[in-house]
Amino acid sequence: MNHEIPSVVVRDLVKQFGNFVAVDHISFEAHRGEIFGFLGPNGSGKSTTIRMLCGLLRPTAGHALVAGYDVARDRETVRQSIGYMSQKFSLYNDLTVIENIRFFAGMYEVSSAILQQRIGWVLNMAGLSGRELALTGTLAVGWKQRLALGCAVLHRPPILFLDEPTSGVDPISRRHFWDLIHQLADEGVTVFVTTHYMDEAEYCDRLVMIHQGKIVASGSPLELKQHAVEGELLLLECEPLGLALDLLHTDPDVLDAAVFGNALHLVVPQAMAAVARLRPCLTAHGITVTKFGPIPMSLEDVFVALTGKRVKSANQEV
Amino acid sequence: MRWHRLAAIVRKEVIQIRRDARSLLIVVVMPVLLMLAFGYGVSFDIKHIPVCVFDREGSQQSQDFLKHFQASEYFNVVEAVNNFPALIHAIDAGSCRLALVIPHDYSLKLRAGGPVSVQALLDASDNNTANVSISYSEAVVQAYSQQLQLEWLNRQGRFVIQPPLSVDVRTWFNEDLESMANIVPGVVAIVMAVIGSFLTSLTIAREWERGTMEQLISTPVTSLEVMIGKLVPYFLIGMLDTVLCAGMGIWWFQVPFRGEWSVFLISSALFLTVVLSLGYVISVVAKSQLAASQAALITTFLPAFLLSGFIYPIDQMPAVLRLITHLIPARFFMTITRDVFLKGTSIPLLVNDLVALAVFALLLTMLATRAFQKHLS
User: Fold this and answer.
1) Exposed end of chain A (fewer CB within 10 Å): N or C?
2) Dist CA B3 CA B15 (whole Å)
């Protein structure tokens, strides 16, 4: 499909902090113009990986090439080819919008000939035109994030690393932010993004699911939903929920059962056969079944089925 | 090193300093306050020693003798008592340092040609003040005895015989023997050490504390550019503060400045480079503003105050301590400021101290560049 050299190549990358293995032999490739998602709960090793790729942390073992350069040996060359937006907002709150932009333009040596044009582009992109003189600390979170993105792409890097760029941002700003990411990807920028929001993962061209430092699945969102988990998905709404869960866990036909909001999601080899067999069994135990039928698999179902862990509970989703 | 990036860092630092009321306070108010506090607070002059007297005779002659003590600027008769317990109490309570007891037969013995003994009791818990009190009172007594002797000889109609030997004293550099003239140039050095290291001790720690460091080090900027970019604005501020402190010394404290401004400024620039780099290294290591500022104070203020020769003369120190003072950059700058202020010494005689400062400056800037690593953890 893509015959170019991949933008990011990771081979057996390991990061250890003392005895704790934060990243455990991961390998993957990301291609030019791709939105590459890194999905996993907090502490799964997403940020550690992204920091190694930006040359901020030294890998314990393994290799990573970013834009063709080794992140351990050619850190400075790597840094010139990437834009990075850290998880925590890290622009200067005591500088104005324009001062931050000018500072990072200086850091990336944006030549004065094109500086004005770039500044205009960033201000326009972040929707901050007219607020150039506002102190950055006084901006709302959504605007800060867009400014941070703007400062990370001032030098038009071919690869962009975004570490949980939308955490703490309201849904409308998140939507807007993702529009910007798509726009950059359309221009050929490889966007490497970590998230723990399932709905955001759907926007990615390709995904890697990471759990306890290991990759548990990878592929496009569609591929993951169709092939990562064997079996079909059932939704069960019933009362009482806990009793049903205990019962289903012991059933040999149920591959996986987990609570999603106020219902259960079951993974079974064959949806219709399972419903026919399980419904009377549940009723016999005094459980009132209000809804029981097949539903399409979501990324969250895939993740839960693969790890037994929720990425983020449904009621926490914004 | 790229000028673009260096200039961007300098500009950013200047904006941040300008917007931060706290750092402006440190830059402008702190040097003035420190100069005033040390300039007035530290004094080695011992004057107006409180004296208590017990005149057991109470004659015109005994009172005349006491008047000579009162007239001296070194003594201040604060109390006259009429019994021993009251005298002891005055010493115990600390209301006087020196107690004089005049015998009941003072004038009688005097008229008989002496000798008369006047008793002096001293509170020697502060041995320095006690020593000084002894020599001052001996001087007063001797002058008075001579005067009495002279009067007696005159009455006898005899010639006055001059003593065969006399010392002809000329005090150089600090003609009035004012301790302020010695202290104020030293205070300039101490204030520079404190302000210089304090200013830079916050710069790197602040970036870590606010989380801005992660973004900064993800850019292609180099450690050297970060260091120079952060030191340059503080160097300029430090030089302004130096001129401010020296100016206060000259025009406020009236200390003579006899040297060349160029010599003073060159050595100040070297010393500032030393303390700014030291503060920067501390800032890199500490990673928290509070820890960094305290470490900066401890590593610069205390040695500069105690081991630089500011208070305790280095040639009076035990050999080991004297060796250690060579590790204190302020020691060399202390010599230079005093010499330039009071003696007007020029560069050839200050070469050793200047070279020492230059070596410190080189080592610490190298350490500062090395200390800052562009990665996390």
Assistant:
1) N
2) 18
Q: How far apart are the first and last CA of chain A?
A: 36
pLDDT tens-digit readout, A67-102? 999 998 998 889 999 999 998 899 999 999 999 999
Cis upstream peptide for A240 (omega within 30°):
yes
pLDDT, block means (10 residues), chain B with 377 residues: 92 93 85 90 82 91 89 89 91 91 89 84 88 90 86 77 78 80 90 90 90 92 93 94 94 92 95 95 89 90 90 89 93 94 90 96 93 77
- Confirm if A303 and A230 have CB atoms less than 8 A apart: no
Closest CA to B261 of B183, B174, B344, B343: B344
- Cut 0.90: pTM above it: no
User: What local confidence, expressed as pLDDT, does residue A309 receive?
Assistant: 60
**How many Å apart are CA A210 and CA A40, to the nearest integer?**
5
Whether residues B2 and A109 touch (CB distance < 8 A) is answered with yes
**% of residues, chain A, pLDDT over 70:** 96
**In Å, how far is A95's CA from the nearest CA of chain B?**
7
Structure tokens at A242: 């806990």
CA A32 to chain centroid, in Å, comes to: 18
Q: Which residues of A touch B (CB under 8 A)?
A: 17, 51, 54-58, 75-76, 79-80, 82, 84-86, 88-95, 99, 102-109, 148, 151
Looking at residue B301, its amino acid is F
Give, in degrees to the nearest 5, the angle at Cα B37 between B34 and B39: 95
Ordered by start, the domain boundaries in chain B are: 3-42+178-371, 49-155
Query: With contact defined as beta carbons under 8 Å apart, do A189 and A219 qualify?
Result: no
| Nearest neighbour of A56 by CB, restricted to B19, B211, B214 | B214
Report residue A148 as tokens.
């941070």
**Closest among B325, B318, B329, B376 to B353, alpha carbons compared:** B329
Q: Which of A251, A247, A256, A231 is nearest to A307 (CA)?
A: A256
How far away is chain A from the Cα of B1, in angstroms, using its nearest Cα? 12
Residue B365 token pair: 């800037």
Q: Determine whether domain B49-155 maps to CATH 3.40.720.10.
A: no
B12 touches chain A (CB under 8 A): yes
Q: Both tokens of residue B353?
A: 């101290």
Cβ–Cβ below 8 Å for B376 and A95: no
Judged by CB atoms closer than 8 Å, whether chains meet at A99 and B15 is answered as yes
